[in-house]
Backbone:
């Protein structure tokens, strides 16, 4: 089983709609979960982090964590063309090693 | 807002040559990392560094790689004898401290080995 798994997409969402991105992870001991956004040719940019089960909201972004199901998701409300990017789910395996999924490519259609 | 910086942004080298990639982590951060991303692939952990020593390294980080913090601000990755398959984006990251805290990434160095 892959350590961090994401649907690679591409995921196409109309402008103004909700984009839903999903991630599963294999290590039940993981405590911290991150969503990064990566534009083509650029570095990962932190969008949100979440440590506790449930929802965490920051502006148009909501992260959801379910440790029992080993599942973390990111919702983007009122999607904008500038949200078009690859979204990377990252999970710590141990205290040092941040492990990334392959990323989901999101395209917002005007 | 403080940022991680990296130099150079691009580097082209011949196979077998040594390269040094440089990073300046955020000033109050204590933990430093190198990651790489081969074109079209996922971001991969290479090494973590704390208190002037390697705390963890991946299987990718073999004897050809080394890291150093030569002074109070710089953090370097050296590839001793580059191979074609070392061509990738190399990202430096840092975090303040505490287990499993947020890592902040630099803009990356694109390395091309010919």
Residues:
């Amino acid at each position: 089983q892959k350590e961090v798994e994401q649907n690679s997409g591409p995921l196409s969402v109309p402008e103004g709609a909700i984009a839903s991105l999903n991630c599963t992870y294999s290590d039940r001991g993981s405590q911290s979960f991150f969503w990064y956004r990566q534009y083509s040719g650029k570095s990962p940019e932190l969008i949100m982090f979440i440590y506790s089960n449930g929802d965490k909201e920051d502006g148009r972004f909501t992260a959801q964590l379910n440790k029992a199901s080993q599942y973390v998701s990111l919702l983007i409300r009122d999607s904008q063309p500038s949200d078009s990017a690859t979204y990377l789910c990252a999970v710590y395996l141990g205290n040092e090693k941040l492990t990334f999924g392959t990323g989901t490519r999101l395209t917002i259609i005007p | 807002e403080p940022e991680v910086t990296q130099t150079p942004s691009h580097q082209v080298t011949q196979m077998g040559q040594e390269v040094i990639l440089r990073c300046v982590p955020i000033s109050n951060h204590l933990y430093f990392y190198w990651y790489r991303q081969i074109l079209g692939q996922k971001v991969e952990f290479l090494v973590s560094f704390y208190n002037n020593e390697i705390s963890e390294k991946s299987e990718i980080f073999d004897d050809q790689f080394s890291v150093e913090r030569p002074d109070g601000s710089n953090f370097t990755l050296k590839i001793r004898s580059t191979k074609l398959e070392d061509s990738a984006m190399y990202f430096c990251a840092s975090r303040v401290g505490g287990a499993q805290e947020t890592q902040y990434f630099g803009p990356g160095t694109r390395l091309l080995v010919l």
In short: Chain B touches chain A through 26 residues (CB under 8 Å).
